[in-house]
Write a structure and sequence with these properties.
The strands form three sheets. A nine-stranded antiparallel beta sheet has the order 2-3-1-4-11-10-9-6-5. It has helices at about 15-20, 35-45, 70-75, 85-100, 125-135, 180-185, 205-215, 225-230, 235-245, 245-250, 255-265, 270-285, 295-310, and strands at about 1-10, 50-60, 65-70, 110-120, 140-145, 145-150, 150-155, 160, 165-170, 175-180, 200-205, 255, 325-330. It is built from 13 helices and 13 strands. Helix 11 (about 255-265) runs antiparallel to helix 12 (about 270-285).
């Protein structure tokens, strides 16, 4: 349900000095403040897995904001996080704050600035994993202002192609699908038992989006920026359905010959069956956005709905790839 969160905590200047002292940080020894925060975060990670400081900022009059990231999967040492885990998560965050500041009252005033929702799917067959990322190359280039990114940059700033991931982003929300094992290998990190064969669907809600949802002027949801509010299962499900399903689409994956048999057995008219088959062929060759060039928006949406109604994902498995199966279930199931 949740991978990680970032929260903002209001503290005093004296508490910042206490934080440095507790974590054996001599701020005056560093030329840049960013290096101080980096060293602070490293020390904290070593002693408190799951916690890290991303930044500290002065807001004037002796007041500061501490930006804390919490990896909830690491914190609980398990992958399956549910709403029922919230009391334990809060208790562990408070315990950490007591170790850092001597009390946990700062959590009462926290502000949620980011939350990463996730769905982990175990796919032991590596060929199926390969097929998944091949199919996702055919998906839409843009949805709800989220643009598909095929190339990024590694830690050295060099071009990096997302071979075992799919990345969609905008200013306020990001969506990425990736192999946890490949991520660990790329970072030179140990693969945890709960990460073996896992493909992760991750939806990242950033601060701009959380601020928009806080608005109470009719443009937002009047939703408070608190961890407890975004830890609700119903809200998680709503976000995944509204932001992920329209990209991944519903229905299982078939080669065109298998899809044709399902179409033939359907109750659609002969003419509709022919049009849906042509639609599938075009998507297979040119991607799911290709039919938009000649179909009206209502017709395009209707074809997607018709296919999904009979259990066919609109992106077919390439018929000439003998290394790919004729059928594969859609792994994205909430």
């Amino acid at each position: 349900m949740i991978h990680s969160v970032e929260i903002l905590l209001p503290v005093t200047y004296e508490e910042v000095q206490q934080l440095f002292k507790h974590n054996r940080i001599k701020a005056e020894a560093y030329e840049k403040f960013g290096a101080v925060v980096k060293k602070l975060s490293q020390n904290v990670k070593n002693e408190h897995p799951g916690f890290s400081y991303t930044w500290l900022s002065s807001i004037g009059k002796g007041l500061w904001n501490v930006h804390l990231k919490v990896d909830i999967v690491k914190l609980l040492r398990k992958s399956e996080i549910t709403e029922k885990d919230y009391p334990r998560v809060e208790a562990l965050i408070r315990k950490f704050l007591i170790s850092q500041f001597g009390n946990s009252s700062h959590f009462d005033e926290h502000t949620l600035t980011r939350i990463d929702y996730k769905l982990d799917v175990v796919i032991p067959n590596k060929n199926h994993q390969k097929l998944i990322f091949h199919l996702y190359e055919k998906y839409t280039e843009r949805y709800r202002f989220k643009e598909k990114i095929k190339w990024g940059k590694d830690e050295q700033g060099n071009p990096l192609k997302y071979e075992t991931s799919q990345y969609h982003k905008c200013k306020s929300i990001e969506f990425i699908i990736y192999s946890k094992e490949e991520e660990r290998i790329a970072k030179g990190e140990e693969i945890q038992p709960y990460e073996k064969d896992v493909v992760r669907f991750e939806l990242r809600l950033k601060n701009d989006h959380l601020n928009a949802m806080k608005r109470n002027d009719g443009k937002g949801k009047n939703r408070v920026k608190k961890l407890s509010e975004y830890f609700k299962a119903d809200l998680y499900r709503k976000y995944m359905i509204n932001h992920v399903t329209p990209i991944i689409r519903k229905g299982d994956y078939y080669k065109i010959t298998k899809a044709e048999k399902i179409l033939d057995d359907s109750n659609f008219s002969r003419k509709k069956k022919e049009k849906l088959r042509s639609f599938l062929v075009d998507v297979s060759k040119n991607g799911i956005d290709a039919p938009k060039q000649y179909l009206s928006k209502p017709t395009y949406r209707k074809y997607l709905q018709d296919l999904e109604a009979i259990g066919i994902n609109p992106v077919p498995i390439p018929k000439n790839r003998k290394d790919f199966p004729n059928f594969m279930r859609n792994p994205f199931i909430l």
